[in-house]
Amino acid sequence: MRAHAERLTGLGTTIFAEMSALAVATGSVNLGQGFPDRDGPDSVLEDAIAAIRAGANQYPPGRGIPVLRQAIADHQKRFYDFSYAPDTQVLVTTGATEAVAAALLAYVEPGDEVIALEPYYDSYAAGIAFAGGRRVPVTLRAPSYRLDLDELRAAVTPRTKVLLINSPHNPTGTVLTDEELGGIRDVAVEHDLVVITDEVYEHLVYDGLQHRPLASYDGMAERTVSISSAGKTFAVTGWKIGWVTGSPEVVTAVTTAKQFLTFTSGAPFQPAIANALALGNDYFDALRADLQSRRDLLSDGLAELGFEVHRPAGTYFVTTDIRPLGYDDGIDFCRMLPERAGVVAIPHQVFYDNTSAGRPLVRWAFCKQPEVLQEALTRLQKL
């Protein structure tokens, strides 16, 4: 057989699949892949069951059912004071991963450059490759993971088409500041760039900080593809309900690509997520408080074991530097860890083009029950 397409080069099995398989094979505590070990609110689960029994099992509309598109518009108004028309400015997708892929396919021509903040979620590299683009990394460096705006400006060339921005940022947990977001806005407006924003951790922000969408900055409403999803906020990652919001032109462009990917999905989950988005502030406040306590449990425990801990401002993940324990390669460390200690984590290195910047860093998920986190910490004492 002929060799596979060149754009697939380097896109082998994801690190998440490899590490999750290791977790199963060794009976390890899995702090690798970022999914919670609990289900979402009972009311949301019951809504999905009721929708199945009521017959919501066939293709929903391509842009999503009206009640969910209205709920997404209401959510954007409630939290960020955006006014979106649900019929023309909201698109339901098969998770945020599809939304990012569809947005890249909608805006990136072969040879266009896409600037992404590294370390970056691995599907970004794949999506850029599928669109025929070239990724250009701007590195968030340990331990602060702040965005160097001068480096961002220097990365722009005449071939730059898109800025791909993730905040709250996976895997570092950084939340971009107003100064950083304003700097991104300045670059985007000056160079007439499209900005794709992955905001799936928008409600998982700690220590009194707040997420501010890039679309809210002057000059950004017409050039921003805003993406989020329900999986992280409502602990239903397997449902794969995401969405895009933006101007009618932006949503139409992304829809044009998305309709030939999955067309539509998640029929009985869509009405359930519509109801979930309308939950009271007490739910969102309790979610943040609970996850912050788990972050602190894991961060404090890892620090006591000797890791250099980079405590995150958002997301599900704590990053550590492994060098204080005598290790310097995160991939080797994570492959050794299940057999040595019965715990699985994810090496940062796989999220970088500039691999030396991520070589000694390891990501741990804290979206697990406290007793699971404590068990992992107990096992890690074997190191």
Describe the structure.
There is one protein chain. 41% of the residues lie in helices and 15% in strands. The protein has helices at residues 15-26, 42-53, 66-80, 95-107, 122-130, 149-155, 178-191, 231-234, 248-258, 269-277, 281-304, 330-341, 355-358, 370-380, and strands spanning 29-30, 90-94, 113-118, 134-139, 160-166, 194-198, 224-229, 241-245, 308-310, 317-321, 343-344, 346-347, 361-365. The longest helix is centred in the C-terminal third of the chain and has 24 residues, at 281-304. The relative contact order is 0.17. The model has no long low-confidence stretch (mean pLDDT 96).
Write out key terms for the chains shown.
single chain, 383 residues, alpha/beta, seven-stranded mixed beta sheet, four-stranded antiparallel beta sheet
Oligomer: single chain
* Number of distinct beta strands: 13
Shape: globular
Q: What topology, given as strand order, has the largest sheet?
A: 2-8-7-6-5-3-4
User: Which percent range fits the helix content?
Assistant: 40-55%
Biggest sheet details: 7 strands, mixed
How many DSSP helices? 14
CA(first)-CA(last) distance: 46 Å
Instruction: Evaluate the radius of gyration.
Output: 20 Å
Give the low-pLDDT segments. Answer: none
Q: Name the average pLDDT.
A: 96
What fraction strand? 15-25%
Kindly name the structural category.
alpha/beta
Order of helices and strands: HEHHEHEHEHEHEEHEHHHEEHEEHEH
Indicate the topology:
Elements: H1 15-26, E1 29-30, H2 42-53, H3 66-80, E2 90-94, H4 95-107, E3 113-118, H5 122-130, E4 134-139, H6 149-155, E5 160-166, H7 178-191, E6 194-198, E7 224-229, H8 231-234, E8 241-245, H9 248-258, H10 269-277, H11 281-304, E9 308-310, E10 317-321, H12 330-341, E11 343-344, E12 346-347, H13 355-358, E13 361-365, H14 370-380
Parallel strand pairs: 1-11, 3-4, 3-5, 5-6, 6-7
Antiparallel strand pairs: 2-8, 7-8, 9-10, 10-13, 12-13
Helix pairs in contact: 1-12, 2-10, 3-10, 4-5, 4-9, 11-14
